[in-house]
Amino acid sequence: MAASLKTENDTSDVQLVRIRDISAGGAKVQGPMLDVGTQIILTRGRFTIPARVVWCGDAQFGVAFDKPINVDEVMKATGPEKAPDKPVYASALTSDYPGQAKASSHGTVRPTDRRAVFGLRVTG
């Protein structure tokens, strides 16, 4: 199940991780490599779970929760959403954005506006 991870002592962005196994006292997490002893915070839905990394392996690590959790409630919680398939700014290039090229009566595509769009110069 998906969750968000943030290290307590780090100011970096929240990272998306996958919880592969979970119990009231800990979990096996697939995500970035962290050092044993690193304090982390896992978030899933309304649950914020402080934990400590206790072992590391190939692309996975184990954590011990600071306090026991209710596994059923955490599993029912909504995880973080995936990133969109394409960046939001790219949608402007594929939508009815002013200046988008349109087909002429001859079937050729001609730009309707010759202004630069997102740093691209329309020529021809």
Rounded to an integer, what's the Rg over CA atoms?
A: 23 Å
Strand content: 35-45%
Q: Report on the biggest sheet.
A: 6 strands, antiparallel, barrel
Number of strands: 8
Mean pLDDT: 76
pLDDT < 50 stretches: 83-93
Note the run of SSEs as H and E: EEEEEEHHEE
Helix content: under 10%
- Count of helical stretches: 2
List the helices and strands and how they pair.
Blueprint: E1 2-7, E2 15-22, E3 26-30, E4 39-44, E5 47-56, E6 60-65, H1 71-76, H2 91-94, E7 102-103, E8 109-110
Antiparallel strand pairs: 1-2, 1-4, 2-3, 3-6, 4-5, 5-6, 7-8
Description:
The protein contains 2 helices and 8 strands; from the N terminus they run ββββββααββ. It has helices at residues 71-76, 91-94; strands at residues 2-7, 15-22, 26-30, 39-44, 47-56, 60-65, 102-103, 109-110. It is mainly β. A 6-stranded antiparallel β-barrel has the order 1-2-3-6-5-4. A two-stranded antiparallel ribbon has the order 7-8.
Compact summary:
The protein has 124 residues and is mainly β.
Key words describing this protein structure:
124 residues, mainly beta, 6-stranded antiparallel barrel, two-stranded antiparallel sheet, 2 helices, 8 strands, 8% helix, globular
